[in-house]
């Protein structure tokens, strides 16, 4: 466990989320998710967590493992076509993880998701958080549209509103 990581998580906590993701930005991300879901039958959730607290931090939980916990907790796996996708940002680590249900993950694969994550992280390094998330949502939507085209009878199974932890 790195003392530097612990310090970063303790110092950069929730204030950074409020600064980088004010209500206007969260609303823009929600609209991007709605627009994307109009082009496919998949489900996208965006979660931003400022920093890890308590046990996850002191267990040195990696962002990927935390993203899997969030994916499960938000029941993103509970979609009719197994095509839910979580875009998870752990802000203190500047780490983006995409966790996809088995229906879409088998079609896109690790390399496809990782390319989207890297593009988002490049935007974040430049301080463009809103643009980075929206570009990520658009890229995930393109993948979902390829493999799960829009249907008129499909309900919106998961909320589009971003989650701030």
UniProtKB/TrEMBL annotation:
Pfam families: TPM_phosphatase
Name used for this protein in its record: TPM domain-containing protein
Gene3D superfamilies: 3.10.310.50
Domain (TPM): residue spans on this chain: 27-142
Higher taxonomy: Bacteria, Pseudomonadati, Pseudomonadota, Alphaproteobacteria, Hyphomicrobiales
Source species, domain of life: Bacteria
InterPro entries (alphabetical): TPM_dom (IPR007621)
């Amino acid at each position: 466990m790195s003392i530097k990581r612990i310090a970063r998580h303790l110092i950069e906590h929730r204030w950074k989320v409020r600064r980088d993701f004010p209500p206007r930005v969260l609303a823009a991300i929600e609209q991007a998710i709605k627009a994307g879901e109009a082009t496919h039958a998949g489900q996208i959730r965006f979660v931003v967590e400022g920093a890890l607290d308590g046990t996850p931090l002191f267990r040195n939980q990696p962002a990927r493992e935390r993203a899997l916990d969030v994916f499960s907790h938000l029941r993103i796996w509970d979609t009719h076509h197994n095509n839910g996708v979580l875009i998870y940002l752990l802000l203190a680590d500047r780490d983006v993880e995409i966790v996809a249900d088995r229906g879409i993950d088998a079609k896109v694969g690790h390399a496809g998701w990782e390319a989207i994550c890297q593009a988002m992280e490049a935007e974040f390094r430049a301080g463009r958080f809103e643009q980075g998330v929206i570009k990520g949502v658009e890229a995930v939507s393109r993948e979902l549209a390829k493999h799960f085209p829009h249907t008129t009878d499909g309900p919106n199974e998961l909320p589009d509103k971003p989650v701030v932890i």
